[in-house]
Amino acid sequence: MKVRFVHWYNAVLTALLSMIGYGCSTTSNEPVMYGTPTADYIFKGRVTDEAGVPIQDIKTSLKQVFKSDDRTYVEGLDSVLTGASGDYQLKYGGIIGQIDHHSKLIVEDVDGEANGGKFLSDTIDIDFKNNAVQIKNGDSGWYEGTYEISQDIRLKKNSDEGPKASE
What we know:
The protein is α+β, with helices and mostly antiparallel strands. Strands 1, 4, 7, 8 and 9 form a five-stranded mixed beta sheet that branches.
């Protein structure tokens, strides 16, 4: 008998607390939305050599870097090769505040001598505060819209040819 009473008491109390909590969580008739603000990001630009000539087949990668105590974690988000005109475009949908504080664009020559010679790699910190332009508004909820970040990159040629075969 005592067990049955405790069971019913817990069920009624749970139902009442659920209704009270739900009723106190909003001032309108709409349910409260839980989550984290997100947005879509488009990173685009052109990769050229020092003379301004577009470079094809340069790997551009968007990465996030997280530091925790004495360790650093790198997460690759997207990568693409530049086209014939040196253009690249990367897309990422992410959490606001997470991606915009720790994002880097890694640019690497992965084809060696092809397409104009060997080029040095470069790492660019993405400056959201000054470069992100909102191109699409979000809804009135957690979606903040679409932002575009343009970053043109000039790569330097790798002048280190190493030892010659005759040496």
